[in-house]
Amino acid sequence: MATYVYIDASNIIYGTRDEGWKVDFRKLFKYLSERYKARKIYYFAGIDGKNEKQKKFYKLLGRIGYNLVLKPVKIYNQPDGSKVRKANCDVDLTFYAMRDLLKYNKVIFFSGDGDFEILLKHILMLKKKLVVIANGKRTAREIKLLVNQNFIDLGSLRKIIEFKGNKKR
After folding, report:
1. I want to staple 134 with a disulfide (CB 3.0 to 4.6 A). Which of 52, 66, 139, 151 is the partner?
2. Going by C-beta distance under 8 Å and a sequence separation of 6 or more, which residues neighbour residue 23?
3. Closest-CA residue to 25 (of 105, 115, 110, 127)
4. C-alpha closest to that of 73 among 52, 53, 45, 93
5. Fold for the domain defined by 2-126+135-161
6. CA-CA distance, 45 to 9, in Å (whole number)?
């Protein structure tokens, strides 16, 4: 059996940004591949068809080896006149995790979103090994309680996966 990884992009990006750093996705892929022997690493995110920089980033992720699951970004008008951009990838992530249940015995989630509690409970009920990696301050209390010692604060990986500068590779 294998280890599968499900990354909620907004969770990892905002989770590190709030702490003043960025993830080097090459380093993250290497870490997950070597440390956990991850067979599949899914990256769930929104895509803005007009954003060329974002398209290049996603092409790079694909070349590194991530399995991209991208949804068009929707813009919502708020009552105060501001606009919110959302892709709402949670259902997609849940679908893929359930679809792949028989393919993995260990699963790693990069999200501390409380909406995933029911999914994580189901995975644990099936006796799958589960690790949640997320920003500790942004992770729902019920998720931390559910996975207990199998919660890893994303900040503890900073020295391993931090992006250092704007080097061209």
Report:
1. 139
2. 12, 13, 16, 161, 162, 163
3. 110
4. 45
5. Rossmann fold (3.40.50)
6. 5
- Which residues are CB-neighbours of 33 under 8 A, at least 6 positions away? 41, 65
Give the β-pairing of 104-110 and 38-47.
Answer: unpaired
Under 8 Å between Cβ of 19 and 155:
yes
Residue type, 96: Y
Phi, psi (degrees; rounded to nearest 5) at 85: -105, 125
Under a CB-based contact definition with an 8 Å cutoff, are residues 135 and 111 in contact?
no
Residues 4 and 40: beta-carbon distance below 8 Å: yes
Q: Where are the domains of the chain?
A: 2-126+135-161
pLDDT by 10s per residue, the chain, length 169: 799 999 999 988 988 998 999 999 999 999 999 999 999 999 999 999 889 999 999 999 999 999 999 999 988 899 998 988 888 899 999 999 999 999 999 999 999 999 999 999 999 999 999 999 999 999 999 999 999 999 999 999 999 999 997 655 4
Q: pTM score > 0.90 for this model? A: yes
